[in-house]
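Students often ask why we bother encoding 3D structure as a string. The short answer is that it lets us treat folding as translation between two languages. Here is a chain of 384 residues written in the first language.
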Amino acid sequence: MAGDRTEQQRRNFALIYTIILLFVAMGIAIRDFYYSRNNFSDRVYITCNILYLLVVSFKIAVLYNRKIEFFNLVSLTRQHFWHTNYDPQETLILTACKKKCIIFVIIINFCAQGTCAGYMLTPLLANVGKRESERMLPFNMWMNFPTGNSPYFEVLFVIQMLCVYNVAVCYICFDNFLCLVNLHVAYQFRILEYRLTNLHSIVQKQPDDQNLDNDLSSCTILCYAKLRNCVQQHQMLTEYCKKIENVFTMIILCQVLFFGLVLCLLAYQLFLTDAPPVRYVSLMINLSGTLCQVFVFTYSCDGLIRWNAHIGTTIFSGPWSNLPMTKVGKALRRNVVMIIMRSNKYCGLTAGGFFPVCLETYTGILSTAMSYFTLLRQSSVNVE
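And here it is in the second language, the structure alphabet:
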């Protein structure tokens, strides 16, 4: 978040820099695709690169169009999740969430860095022992001047690698943020479940003496006050999920469609083409990273659905029937029913409103990718 005018200028410069590199990378990829139209394997490789560029451009366009909602989402996350007072048990739950987030982010970033390193090392190793005029770049330029000679080679190599790393950063940063937010919301549902469990313990601690009615009344008032806070927290979490849906729903739809296509293209390059060994390593890291990213993406979305459903089960099992049917007791029961009804409604993210995203989506993406792979393999046989 920009705190002053200087930071705002830096952010604007970063956006302009990113857009310029995306246009440069798109121009190189489209030109390479045009001149490689007679080579099916090269077209598959270039198509995969173009898909990454299109997805990154779409994400930037969507979030730029919804930047106010996005910044409000970041502010709400800071206010309600990251800078809030928790008791020791709630702190342990949040710590477990942070550990899982760190593991997921490290895996995704490692695979992204490995893929970028593959783009860089493939031409460098292929150029060993070659003459200067025969040196190859990460991506073919198809220029009339000798791109292998110095200083053209060095300048073009740096420009292309800047494009590669810029695309990689833009590709993973929005997904990382979405997964982090989803995991934090899921663990906030777990914290809410813990607080509801504490209400059960308050109700169960009823003294067995002559002042039982007074003690039950005071216990009911205390439970009602705390339950009202839980209701407000549950409403806040469900509204927060709607805000995430509003900002990211089109990006999620794009991601689901993209994952199926890119997994198919990566599998084709790995198993049906003759690529340099370094590129094979890069493709393997890219494929592994994409599979991990699909899992993290669907797992984080699935957590919203599962843990919201647990809220209704937790509060339903409470000993609310032991409380008296006073005015406060009736209001407490109405709040309990409200939470149960709300937890039975869907609370999660959808892909453009077409279908909910959960762990079943992971198997659906893999099935789609396998179908595409079969069609692509048959097409390559027909071309040959």
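Translate back mentally: The longest helix spans residues 212-271. Keep this in mind for the problem set.
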